[in-house]
């Protein structure tokens, strides 16, 4: 029996610059992933409307497009994520503003990747999102930490295992990768992360990554 061919992931792209859109399209084409780009727009408002009428699996976008402020673009994107919780979003951004990035992390289907990351690493992050993971790149973590450096609490209460898990997360590793490196189950690694978050009194990944600078 012949195996069924894998259905390509439908992608939408948004950036205020058509030239950047062309470069992003070419870059995605080099990733050896089964994808099909079906929408490209230069504003968040236009891509949000397009995704409503032509559903896609993954949106790769800047925070805002042409004639939009960062706040406007962010609010449109968060509203879209509420309307379509199954949509995976990669915010591939040049922004270093912690307040904008923190707000985006309120949506659990948004991954954040910095345009300052090296391209091979960006490719790895994209692949991980294509495979269903959520990603926060190390540079994004550093911007979050810089925005709120004095918010660390109960750091001395972390065990060595909890600290090691958080340090690996902040370096860009997934829970699965940490489990493989430490020769432990994903369930154990996830338990260490949850325990650390309780001790640090943080409720989500945004708050956790704001402590990155204080944890080593």
Could you characterize what this model shows?
The protein is globular. The chain is built from 10 helices and 5 strands. Helix 4 links the parallel strand 4 and strand 5. It folds into 2 domains: about 130 residues, Rossmann fold, CATH 3.40.50.2300; about 60 residues, Arc Repressor Mutant, subunit A (Orthogonal Bundle). About 0% of the residues have low confidence. The protein has a 5-stranded parallel beta sheet, with helices on both faces. Helix 2 runs parallel beside helix 3, helix 4 crosses helix 6 and helix 7 packs across helix 9. The protein has about 220 residues and is an alpha/beta fold. The longest helix has 15 residues.
CATH superfamily of the largest domain: Response regulator
CATH-derived architecture of the largest domain: 3-Layer(aba) Sandwich
Number of spatially distinct domains: 2
Number of strands: 5
Run of helices and strands: EHEHEHEHEHHHHHH
Q: How is the quaternary structure best described?
A: single chain
Overall body shape:
globular
What fold name stands as the CATH topology of the largest domain?
A: Rossmann fold
H/I helix tally: 10
Beta-strand fraction estimate: 5-15%
In whole angstroms, how far apart are the ends?
52 Å
How would you characterize the largest beta sheet?
5 strands, parallel
Radius of gyration, CA atoms, in whole angstroms:
18 Å
Estimated helix fraction:
40-55%
Q: What order do the strands of the largest sheet run in, or round the barrel if closed?
A: 2-1-3-4-5
Provide the low-confidence segments as ranges.
Answer: 149-153
- Class by SSE composition: alpha/beta
CATH class of the largest domain: Alpha Beta
């Amino acid at each position: 029996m012949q195996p069924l061919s894998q259905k390509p992931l439908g992608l939408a792209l948004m950036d205020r610059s058509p030239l950047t859109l062309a470069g992003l399209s070419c870059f995605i084409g080099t990733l050896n992933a089964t994808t099909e780009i079906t929408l490209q727009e230069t504003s968040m408002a236009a891509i949000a409307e397009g995704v409503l009428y032509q559903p896609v699996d993954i949106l790769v976008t800047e925070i805002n497009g042409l004639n939009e402020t960062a706040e406007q673009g962010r609010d449109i994107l968060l509203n879209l994520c509420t309307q379509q919780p199954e949509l995976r979003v990669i915010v591939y951004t040049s922004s270093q503003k912690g307040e904008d990035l923190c707000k985006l992390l309120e949506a659990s289907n948004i991954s954040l990747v910095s345009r300052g990351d090296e391209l091979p690493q960006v490719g790895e992050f994209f692949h991980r999102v294509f495979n269903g993971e959520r990603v926060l790149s190390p540079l994004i973590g550093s911007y979050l930490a810089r925005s709120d450096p004095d918010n660390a609490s109960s750091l001395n209460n972390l065990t060595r295992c909890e600290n090691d898990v958080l340090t690996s997360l902040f370096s860009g590793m997934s829970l699965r990768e940490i489990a493989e490196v430490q020769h432990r189950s994903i369930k154990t690694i996830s338990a260490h992360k949850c325990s650390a978050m309780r001790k640090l009194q943080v409720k989500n990944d945004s708050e956790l990554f704001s402590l990155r600078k204080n944890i080593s």
